[in-house]
Amino acid sequence: MSSIKQKDESEPASIVYVVDDDVSVREALAALVAEAGYRAAVFDSAEAFLAHPRRQQAGCLVLDVSLPELSGLDLQDRLASQDALPIIFITGHGDIPMTVRAMKAGAVEFLTKPYGPEVILGAIANAVERSRAILHERASLHGLRDRHDSLTPRERQVMALVVRGLLNKQVGGDLGISEITVKAHRGAMMTKMGARSLAELVNMAGRLGLPSAERGLEGSASR
User: Fold this and answer.
1) Which residue, of 4, 31, 107, 173, has the fewest CB within 10 Å?
2) Three-class DSSP labels, the chain
3) Which domains does the chain have, with CATH numbers?
């Protein structure tokens, strides 16, 4: 019996999609991942998997390379933009070119049958953790964008200049406002952004892709 369990039992069960045309493999994997605390969703073809609606939740895809019609590698190509669903390939007869193609396209693991339960569950645990991290970062960035959108036009102007390393007096000169007014806008902006320091604000600007954020980091470091 496997000792590998999901790390946080308070979270909804992560989902493990299994796509394999061998019914015995599907049933065995479904039982194994369920025992480890995951939710299993099994499919006998790539087409059936693609037709199934999927929610944005942590999980991974255990995918057989050799499938009827649409192959596992072809399905990987179809899912290229879905980085929050890491792929673990399984095959009974892999070769180096096949492995290289799968790994270059972003697969997290390429396992050759037969494999032990600890091996596949270890790969699944790593893939689910990667999925969880991607979704967390995506949600964090969405929240960061919402906070930036909440700024007034003037606060955005102040932020853009501050992250370039300009002092309050310089910001005021650029915008034609007093240094005291800059401080007021800067304080409100920092509060809305949830930034506790200039370095943290510069990091946020970088994540948002704001121009000259890199210059701001250099400027803050030289102070």
Assistant:
1) 31
2) CCCCCCCCCCCCCCEEEEECCCHHHHHHHHHHHHHCCCEEEEECCHHHHHHCCCCCCCEEEEEECCCCCCCHHHHHHHCCCCCCCCEEEEECCCCHHHHHHHHHCCCCEEEECCCCHHHHHHHHHHHHHHHHHHHHHHHHHHHHHHHHHCCCHHHHHHHHHHCCCCCHHHHHHHHCCCHHHHHHHHHHHHHHHCCCCHHHHHHHHHHHCCCCHHHHHHHHHCC
3) 15-140 (3.40.50.2300), 150-221 (1.10.10.10)
